[in-house]
Amino acid sequence: MRISIADILEQEGETLKMSLIVGEAGLQRYVDHPRLQKPSLAFAGFFENLSDFRLQVIGQTELSYLATLTAKEQQRVVDIVFDLHLAGVVVTRGIQPPDIILQAAERTDTPLISSMLTSSDFMTYMTVFLSQKLAPVTHQHGVYIDVFGVGVLLMGDSGIGKSEIGLELITRGHRLIADDMVELIRVAPEVLVGRSPEALRYHMEIRGLGILDIRSMFGSAGITDVKRVRLIVKLIRWVDFNEENRLPSEDEFLLHEVRLPCVQVPVRQGRSMAVLVEVAVRNQLLKQRGINSGQVFTQALDQRLQEQLGD
User: Fold this and answer.
1) How far is CA 34 from CA 1, 67, 138, 187, in A?
2) pTM for the model
3) Which of 75, 103, 120, 207 sits 20 to 30 Å CA-CA off 191?
């Protein structure tokens, strides 16, 4: 994933009080990492690990240090830094950059940007923005519902009834996030959030009824835009359900390199699938609080058997 300097300015320029000083020819250079850098060590002569694909932030501290160097040493370190053809350089606090930096940016077509924010505020807000924009994205077939505040991804074979179960959950007061195709973003190593692609947002396809506009039918109470994935419910056909799994052990599913709790629920006519999904969510919430009903029951049963054997 990457984002150009031009797109950063277009999307966040006003919010972060940014304006281009020089380097318009380099606006299509891109950033591919959410972490920002400050070239403090580079100005001190240590150039290793200075990345040309990260935004560089120069504040009052860097400029004050640079001013302590001789004119010849200033020219040397600034030329080495800008000759890396950096993605972009932001000078904070609205400080007018010295001529030596302006000339280096013009010479190398490096976008040189001014921000009125302090370095700490700019880096905080920009890191959040870049983390969202550069997060790895994948797509998963399924129905994604907010049930009791928990992001629940319904997965299963085509035609098994995922959308119908999702619609029943909505009528019971829960909220649609995505139907048919779910966009998954890994915003942290163990955090996966899901949302709907723009073209499908707030809509569901129900066989026999066609495309339904859930927002128009149920209002804002029936929809939400994004949610962290907390539980996967895999719907399987009754004939494929293994009786040995009636009391399943702890199960996890690896999705987009994130391990998530997963339950398998067999589908059969006459079963209230929406109620079963609700119960699965309530059970998961108990587990998050450290209460595992299955384990408690098994431990109590083992204890009674031991007591009987002892008698």
Assistant:
1) 10, 29, 18, 11
2) 0.73
3) 120
Strands (E), 148-174: 150-156
Q: Helix, strand or coil for residue 128?
A: helix
Q: Which residue has the tokens 């835009």?
A: 225
Residue numbers annotated as active site: 141, 162, 180, 246
The number of residues making up the chain comes to 311
* Distance, C-alpha 100 to centroid of its chain: 39
Kindly report the CATH number that applies to the domain delimited by 137-297. Answer: 3.40.50.300
Nearest to 97 by CA among 5, 22, 40: 22
Architecture in CATH for domain 3-134: 3-Layer(aba) Sandwich (3.40)
> Per-residue pLDDT tens for 215-234?
999 999 999 999 999 999 99
Q: How far apart are the first and last CA of the chain?
A: 66
Cα distance between residue 115 and residue 122, in whole Å: 8
